[in-house]
Amino acid sequence: MTNIKDDFTVPELICVLNSWLKRCKEARDGHYKRAETLFDRSQILGYMLIYSTVFVTVFSFFTPNTTVIFLFGITKQHIVVLIGCVSAVISGVVTQARYGERAEIHRSSGAQYANLARKIEVLQLKINAEIINRDNMGIQSSEIIAEWNDLSKNSLLTPHRESKSKLMLHVAIALMFSLVFFIVAHT
Questions:
Q1: How many CB atoms lie within 10 A of CB 102?
Q2: What pTM was estimated for this model as a whole?
Q3: Residue 141's closest CA among 114, 116, 109?
């Protein structure tokens, strides 16, 4: 075959484009999956916050019956206070983690990678149909590279796997505070 810019032949360019297309689709899928995960977290925590604050608000109007003990000296009032603490923690997590905002950024990045994949596919179609000249192949390839570089700079990272140790640390801290709460409530 004839050379394109002296160092790429058309079959080599097709192989490179196939590789780019695969990597681009993997990035797109990774961002979309991450967006779904973050959106689900946002929804779950949002509903938990709603239910726990409604619970605390409703039960704060009742006079506590401190004579009824559920378990280990824990009364209804202790449970209401604990749920109030849980509400505050959930509110802080929602504010700090910004799950909804991060989900939208990942969704947007996924859409941009999908757009880039379509551009690569169009270039492949033009090459296969032989309706593009060598100069335009080089120009369009350079445009794809430039767009991909810009996209890579501005995209959030998508984790390969969730960090279970981080989650376990947060659960351990929450359990420790719950234990301290019940010990203090019992004394």
A1: 18
A2: 0.72
A3: 116
Helix, strand or coil for residue 156? coil
Q: What is the pLDDT of residue 19?
A: 93
Distance CA 185, CA 77 (A): 10
| Alpha-carbon distance values, 91 to 39, 53, 171 (Å) | 16, 10, 16
Beta bridge partners of 8: 4
Residues 6+ apart with CB under 8 A from 117: 21, 24, 25, 28
List, as own/partner pairs, every contact residues 165-168 make where C-beta atoms lie below 8 angstroms and the sequence separation is at least 24, other chains included.
none
Q: Which residues make Cβ contacts (< 8 Å) with residue 142, sequence separation at least 6?
A: none
* Strand, helix or coil for residue 8: strand
DSSP string, 52-101: HHHHHHHHTTSPP-TT-EEETTEEHHHHHHHHHHHHHHHHHHHHHH-HHH
CB count within 10 Å of CB 167 equals 10
- Residue 6 sits at φ, ψ, to 5 deg, of 65, -15
Output DSSP code: residue 131: -
CA distance 153 to 131: 32
Average pLDDT for runs of 10 along the chain of length 187: 50 87 93 94 91 85 68 74 83 88 93 95 90 88 91 73 68 77 65
